[in-house]
Design a protein that fits this description.
With 88 residues, this protein is mostly helical. It is 91% helix and 0% strand. The longest helix is centred in the middle third of the chain and has 71 residues, at 5-75.
């Protein structure tokens, strides 16, 4: 009976069906994981975009403050000259 070709074929088919079920389950798990990762990636892309906008605003503010300070810097004496005068 063990050498029966139909029995061997039936066993082989059952083994292949088990492999297919296992692969289908793995496929479902991987698809769920992919959707989760895609969601995380989309959120990170939004965060990066927001951070870039905030960075540009901060850069513009800093440049504005530095521009406002340029005239003030030219009116004050050089710090090292003041220190030299105080030592004399």
């Amino acid at each position: 009976m063990a050498d029966d070709p139909l029995h061997l074929l039936d066993k082989r088919i059952k083994d292949l069906l088990a492999v297919i079920r296992k692969l289908d389950g793995e496929n479902v798990r991987l698809r769920r994981k992919l959707k989760e990762v895609e969601g995380t990636l989309a959120k990170q892309e939004l965060d990066v975009s927001r951070w870039e906008g905030e960075r540009d605003l901060v850069r513009a503010r800093i440049q504005g403050v530095l521009s406002d300070l340029e005239p003030v810097g030219s009116l004050t004496p050089n710090r090292f000259e003041v220190l030299r005068e105080n030592r004399s």
